[in-house]
């Protein structure tokens, strides 16, 4: 269970003005939510706050009854290692690692031995339909293929939470659909909590619920799976 | 984090192979040169120590005097003392071998005494006339050998000497005595002398007779009676010694040479340390650039849960691997260099302290691990700041497609810079520590670091005058450098370090060479020089020969010089004595006082001391200087201090006439000849050869001598030159790779500029302009730092290490060409690598979004 209560974040420069405040959200395992909102409203910042990549200015975040806002940077890093998966708009695959190695990266961080990490990574690549290219380099892939690798990387260690920041932002609609299918299927089967930040109605419709982020909190929107 | 460490961190070294190999090379070189210098000197010192132990055997104390020795009446006096159990007299000389233009160290020993004190010097005979076959070469009965060895012409060679001279038993060796030749018969070997010792042994009475040293000894080895307190015995025996003769332990002799060669060794080691430091700078530049290029990668890893410490550890591991591998290559290289040096030049690195030794390469695990650790340290130190910077990175920001310029933020560090420079100035004031100019070395390091730290502050300031420029490219370049001064630090650190080192060495060496040239002009006023033998050898000129040379047609005047070695002060330290004419036209390169001393209150004769003597004994002009000459101590008055580049242990010049009056010794070693105008020196030379015999003397024209000495100078500095040249070369390569990497890391920015309509050519010009501006700032700072370091090398380090002063010279032409070359090279490297970066489609570079 992820519980967010009264989360607030101010602008970097002037500590006076709030970017958003009174943001509250509860999500059960297997549940997914899409966060929409205007540009600059702080959607990505909201994700970063949940991931501990940016400090919050007020409120609480609890994952499985553990308070996260009190964690120091390194404790948060260890938590992310175990319990978080990420999918970015810009894919962020490491160009000098093969696809299998890119997918195995979270397992390396968890100090799993190389052989079993490799086996698991190949299994995940199989699920996203890229098993035959496991030893290829990212530079040879199309955008859609890159994002499928990134999805495999986000799920390989069966995290409790998968955070996705505009995962289809760099893809054409046809490829976007394929990627979203894979992503949400993965989230469902691993029993993870999924949070998706997007501008795209189409993408948002894959989540169980759709919320709009405003400076004064989250507002429920119609739609959702 | 095995796989992570291997693929993400260490693998990155392989992906940027060029930068990695340069860093490796620089570290390997620093380690190799430093370790080789140590290995060579350790082996040479060990061999020297072995030689000392060999010739001093089981002696507790040694009585030593000046080069011409002391009266052998001292021997029975000491031998009968109750404190003394055994005494063994020795006459030692450096015999000139006329037909080989070299010398051989000959020890005249009392065979019966030596058997008890220095048994390894005992000779082994091989039959009388060399007809011995290998079967008969077995040692004859000991008694026979001693009888054999007592023959007045019998000489025994150590194995190393036999190899070097390529002589077998039974052969004849000609030695020079005065201006005569004497034939000695090789009667056998000194088998226990060890492989590295080039020497010969003969009976002491025979040696005294052969070398016209009757009644003279150069040393007496003493073994104390059991139970006698060494300190008390030393005091009691010292009281019996005449002036100029002193007592020392065999260990004192070793430390004397060790101290003499130490400053030279430390100097070379410091140069190696500077090469290592250049390696550290290269690692720094390469790592910083790599960190900037891998920002998003690190941000991703942090987002995936890698903590700061893990990231820092990974990056430090990269530096450590560089340092370790560089160190290992360096250690291997050092052993190769040492073996090569022993084969080519023996154990002497150019300063002449260990001539005549044939040391062997030794395995020195302590030294090896020490230098390996230094290499590791250089790698880690270079990686330290970039690793810290990477760990500070805010992952949320790094993941956004961003401008690398942000990573090149570097606040001015004026406080730190000025603090370091102030500390450097203070370190120059420190006195030498145990004879070593550690303050000077510290100041050099502080100035280098301070100069690099001045870059971020000075770069935006230096860009200000360009603000009015209207050309778009200049404005872009200026804006970039002013906004991202860290870029100037990364690329400029190598420029500053290389330029500073090259400039300081250029100034120092050219100042030294010029001063040496001046010195030679003053020291060599005559038209022709005649030398009976090098100082300290068995050849010399009798007064009647000097007269006869002076009467040769074309010769207007002769200036004879006599060399001696004295032991002065309580510690019996050796200094050179030069007796010659001073107060007439033969000049002396004075730095204080005058050649025409004002008649003082006393009647002491004048003496002119070298800077080393002035420093060592703390003497100034008009101070009294007691010297043991003849049978008594004569007090001289210091009339002047002169510059001597030839004798680091120190030298005193006195009037030849004073020397002859006090010692009664009228023989001389050198003659300076002044010729009438128009006389061909070659004619005079052949007349002298007819007079003295073709092989009995060496003659040389001042021009040739000067060329020869400057040749020796250049050889001495060869090691230095090589080290510096290599350090500068590596620095230059490092700079080119830095600019190349910078251009590559800015592909996206350049892609946007292409989108906005800049042509490829213009991008190239932009990169070249930026590089030229960066390099220019670096060069200017490097020039200033280099001049400061040169001043420290000349006024502090050389002064304190070798007691040499010199006049500062500015090789402006060389410096100008060098500076322009650096700037052009930087621009060229940036332009070429810019082309590489532009090869990728500009549109793609922008789309790629990182």
Question: Could you walk me through the main structural features you see in this protein, from its secondary elements to its overall organization?
Answer:
The complex is a heterodimer of chains A (225) and B (850). Chain A has 225 residues and is α/β, with parallel strands linked by helices. Chain A has one domain: Rossmann fold, CATH 3.40.50.300. Helix content of chain A is 36%, strand content 25%. Chain A has helices at residues 43-51, 73-83, 99-109, 114-127, 143-155, 173-190, 201-204, and strands at 2-10, 18-27, 32-36, 58-63, 66-67, 84-87, 161-165, 193-197, 209-214, 217-221. In chain A, strands 6-7-8-3-9-10 form a six-stranded mixed beta sheet, sandwiched between helices. Chain B is built from 27 helices and 22 strands. Chain B is of the alpha+beta class and 850 residues long. In chain B, strand 3 and strand 4 (102-109) form a beta hairpin. In chain B, the strands form three sheets. In chain B, strands 1, 3, 4, 5, 6, 7, 8, 9, 11 and 12 form a ten-stranded mixed beta sheet that branches. In chain B, strands 13, 14, 15, 16, 17, 18, 19, 20, 21 and 22 form a ten-stranded mixed beta sheet that branches. Chain B has a two-stranded antiparallel sheet with strand order 2-10. Chain B has four domains: 1-60 and 277-397, no CATH class; 70-248, no CATH class; 414-518 and 707-850, no CATH class; 528-700, no CATH class. Chains A and B meet through helix 1, helix 2 and helix 3 of A and helix 1, helix 10, helix 11 and helix 13 of B.
Going by CATH, what is the homologous superfamily of chain A?
Answer: P-loop containing nucleotide triphosphate hydrolases
Biggest sheet strand order of chain A reads: 6-7-8-3-9-10
Q: How large is the radius of gyration of chain B?
A: 33 Å
**Number of domains in the coordinates of chain A?**
1
List the uncertain runs of chain A. none
Secondary-structure element pattern of chain A, one letter each: EEEHEEHEHHHEHEHEE
Helix content of chain A: 25-40%
Number of helices of chain A: 7
CATH topology of chain A: Rossmann fold
Distance between the termini of chain B: 26 Å
Which second-level CATH architecture of chain A applies?
A: 3-Layer(aba) Sandwich
pLDDT < 50 runs, ≥5 residues of chain B: 127-143, 841-850
Large-scale geometry of chain A: globular
């Amino acid at each position: 269970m992820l519980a967010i209560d009264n989360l607030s974040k101010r602008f970097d420069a002037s500590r006076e003005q709030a970017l958003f405040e009174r943001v509250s959200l509860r999500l059960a395992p297997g549940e997914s939510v899409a966060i929409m909102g205007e540009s600059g409203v702080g959607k990505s910042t909201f994700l970063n706050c949940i991931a501990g990549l940016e400090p919050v200015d007020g409120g609480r975040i609890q994952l499985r009854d553990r308070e996260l806002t009190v964690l120091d940077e390194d404790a948060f890093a260890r938590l992310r290692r175990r319990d978080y998966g990420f999918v970015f708009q810009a894919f962020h695959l490491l160009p000098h690692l093969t696809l299998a190695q890119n997918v195995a990266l979270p397992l390396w961080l968890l100090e799993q031995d190389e052989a079993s990490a490799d086996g698991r990574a190949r299994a995940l690549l199989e699920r996203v339909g890229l098993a035959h290219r496991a030893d290829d380099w990212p530079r040879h892939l199309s955008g859609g293929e890159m994002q499928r690798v990134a999805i495999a990387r986000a799920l390989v260690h069966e995290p409790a939470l998968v955070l996705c920041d505009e995962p289809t932002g760099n893809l054409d609609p046809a490829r976007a659909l394929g990627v979203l299918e894979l992503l949400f299927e993965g989230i469902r089967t691993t029993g993870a909590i999924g949070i998706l930040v997007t501008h795209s109605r189409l993408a948002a419709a894959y989540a169980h619920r759709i919320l709009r982020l405003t400076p004064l909190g989250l507002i429920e929107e119609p739609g959702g799976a | 984090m095995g796989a992570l460490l291997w693929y993400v961190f260490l693998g990155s070294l392989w992906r940027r192979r060029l930068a990695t190999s340069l860093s490796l090379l620089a570290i390997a070189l620093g380690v190799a040169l430093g370790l080789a210098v140590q290995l060579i000197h350790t082996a040479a010192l060990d061999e020297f120590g072995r030689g000392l132990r060999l010739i001093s055997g089981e002696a507790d104390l040694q009585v030593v005097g000046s080069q011409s020795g002391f009266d052998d009446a001292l021997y029975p006096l000491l031998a009968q003392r109750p404190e003394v159990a055994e005494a063994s007299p020795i006459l030692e000389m450096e015999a000139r071998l006329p037909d080989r233009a070299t010398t051989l160290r000959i020890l005249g020993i009392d065979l019966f005494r030596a058997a008890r004190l220095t048994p390894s010097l005992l000779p082994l005979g091989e039959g009388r006339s060399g007809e011995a076959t290998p079967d008969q070469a077995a040692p004859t009965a000991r008694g026979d050998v001693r009888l054999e060895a007592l023959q007045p012409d019998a000489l025994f060679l150590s194995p190393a000497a036999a190899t070097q001279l390529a002589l077998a038993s039974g052969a004849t060796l000609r030695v020079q005595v005065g201006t005569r030749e004497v034939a000695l018969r090789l009667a056998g070997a000194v088998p226990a002398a060890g492989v590295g010792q080039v020497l010969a042994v003969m009976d002491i009475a025979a040696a005294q007779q052969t070398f016209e040293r009757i009644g003279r000894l150069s040393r007496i080895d003493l073994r104390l009676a059991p139970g006698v307190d060494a300190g008390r015995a030393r005091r009691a025996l010292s009281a019996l010694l005449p002036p100029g003769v002193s007592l020392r332990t065999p260990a004192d002799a070793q430390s004397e040479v060790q101290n003499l060669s130490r400053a030279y060794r430390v100097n070379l080691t410091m140069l190696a340390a500077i090469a290592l430091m250049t390696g550290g700078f290269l690692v720094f530049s390469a790592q910083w650039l790599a960190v900037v290029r891998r920002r998003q990668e690190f941000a991703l890893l942090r987002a995936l849960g890698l903590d700061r410490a893990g990231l820092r550890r990974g990056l430090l591991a990269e530096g450590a691997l560089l340092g370790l591998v560089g160190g290992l290559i360096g250690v291997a290289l050092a052993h190769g260099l040492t073996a090569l040096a022993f084969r080519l030049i023996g154990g002497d690195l150019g300063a002449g302290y260990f001539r005549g030794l044939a040391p062997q390469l030794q395995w020195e695990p302590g030294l090896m691990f020490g230098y390996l650790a230094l290499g590791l340290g250089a790698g880690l130190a270079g990686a330290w700041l970039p690793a810290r910077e990477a760990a500070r990175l805010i992952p949320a920001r790094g993941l956004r497609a961003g401008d690398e310029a942000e990573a090149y933020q570097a606040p001015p560090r004026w406080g730190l810079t000025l603090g370091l420079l102030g500390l450097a100035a203070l370190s120059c004031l420190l006195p030498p520590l145990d004879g070593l100019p550690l303050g000077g070395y510290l100041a050099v390091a502080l100035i280098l670091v301070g100069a690099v730290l001045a870059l971020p502050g000075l770069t935006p300031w230096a860009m200000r005058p360009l603000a009015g420029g209207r050309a778009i490219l200049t404005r872009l370049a200026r804006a970039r450098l002013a906004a991202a001064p860290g870029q100037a630090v990364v690329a400029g650190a190598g420029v500053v370090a290389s330029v500073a080192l090259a400039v300081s060495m250029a100034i120092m060496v050219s100042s030294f060479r010029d001063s040496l040239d001046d010195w030679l002009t003053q020291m060599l006023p005559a038209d022709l020089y005649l030398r009976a033998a090098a100082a300290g050898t068995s050849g010399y000129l009798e007064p009647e020969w000097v007269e006869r040379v002076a009467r040769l047609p074309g010769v207007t005047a002769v200036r004879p010089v006599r060399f001696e070695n004295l032991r002065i002060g309580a510690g019996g330290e050796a200094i050179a004595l030069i007796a010659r004419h001073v107060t007439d036209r033969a000049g002396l390169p004075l730095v204080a006082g005058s050649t025409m001393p004002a008649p003082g209150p006393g009647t002491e004769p004048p003496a002119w001391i070298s800077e080393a003597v002035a420093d060592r004994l703390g003497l100034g002009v008009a101070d009294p200087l007691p010297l043991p000459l003849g049978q008594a101590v004569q007090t001289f008055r210091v009339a002047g201090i002169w510059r001597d580049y030839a004798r680091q242990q120190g030298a005193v010049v006195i009037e030849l006439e004073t020397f002859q009056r006090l010692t009664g010794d009228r023989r001389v070693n050198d003659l300076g000849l002044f010729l009438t105008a128009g006389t061909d020196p070659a004619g005079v030379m052949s007349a002298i050869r007819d007079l003295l015999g073709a092989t009995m003397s060496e003659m040389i024209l001042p021009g040739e001598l000067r060329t020869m000495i400057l040749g020796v100078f250049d050889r001495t500095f060869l090691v230095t030159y090589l080290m510096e040249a290599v350090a500068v070369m590596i620095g230059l390569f490092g700079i080119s790779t830095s600019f190349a990497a910078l251009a590559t890391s800015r592909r996206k920015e350049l892609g946007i500029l292409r989108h906005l309509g800049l042509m490829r050519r213009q991008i190239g010009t932009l990169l070249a302009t930026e590089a030229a501006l960066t390099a220019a700032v670096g060069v200017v700072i490097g020039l200033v730092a280099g001049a400061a370091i040169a001043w420290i090398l000349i006024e502090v380090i050389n002064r304190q290490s070798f007691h040499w002063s010199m006049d500062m010279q500015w090789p402006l032409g060389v410096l100008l060409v060098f500076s322009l070359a650096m700037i052009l090279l930087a621009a060229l490297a940036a332009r070429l690598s810019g082309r590489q970066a532009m090869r990728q489609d500009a549109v793609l570079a922008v789309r790629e979004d990182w």
